[in-house]
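Anyone opening a protein record will find just a pair of labelled lines. A complete record is shown below as an example.
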Amino acid sequence: MVISRQDSWTDDNDLLLASTVLQNIRNGGTQLAAFKEVA
């Protein structure tokens, strides 16, 4: 039996976080700022 966490990330969440992190870093920002932006 497989139980999925209710708070687990979706593929869309992963893509959003990854693109936001990369964009922030390219623009001189930080990974932490990207995490805060996505949250």
User: Anything to note?
Assistant: The chain has a mean pLDDT of 91.
